[in-house]
């Protein structure tokens, strides 16, 4: 549910983290809801700010000010996966498929539109520069392993934007937002081909583009290319 202005004013900024609005089928992300998980088992497993005067790294993404779990910590990944249990992820069933987006991680106000290189991961006390390429991999692996516990041996379907060596075992990959223009159709063919040569077995691009509107010919050509 959406939070009111009164609720927002009473909620400390450090406790405002994203939560899905199940009343709207998960389509609305509300950044101003106090989540008790923040104050409990999640708290020791977040990425720390490089500034010693601050504790938690805060960055901006679609929900607004956000905190970032330390997915290099096996305990954090176990906790993340547990949130997909049927008794916790209410309203879902065996036909539940997860899309892990923005998991590079994407940080809109970051120096490189991602987490600062000197942000500290408490697990092993390593800087983000040393684990950046594995962050997204750990996100979709934890998601896959959590979903796998819900089914009787059925393979979960997870879609990710960020990936690393070994990602093919846990997730399909798509190449991110593109435009409805011929140059992006051409580029997507090269990108998908390169990814498959690199061992990523299930990859794709937004057919027809994510931004702008394709004309009839581009739609047909892109659909044809995607079926090859």
Automatic annotation (TrEMBL):
Signal peptide: none
Annotated ranges, domain Glycoside hydrolase family 31 TIM barrel: 43-225
This protein's record includes keyword Electron transport: no
Region (Disordered): 1-34
Amino acid composition bias (Polar residues), ranges on this chain: 1-13
Gene Ontology molecular function, alphabetical: alpha-glucosidase activity; calcium ion binding; unfolded protein binding
UniProtKB keywords: Glycoprotein, Glycosidase, Hydrolase, Signal
Pfam families cross-referenced by the UniProt entry: Glyco_hydro_31_2nd
GO BP annotations, alphabetical order: carbohydrate metabolic process; N-glycan processing; protein folding
InterPro entries hit by this protein: Calreticulin/calnexin_P_dom_sf, GH, Glyco_hydro_31_AS, Glyco_hydro_31_TIM
GO cellular component: endoplasmic reticulum
Family label: Belongs to the glycosyl hydrolase 31 family.
Name used for this protein in its record: Ganab protein
Taxonomic source organism: Symbiodinium natans
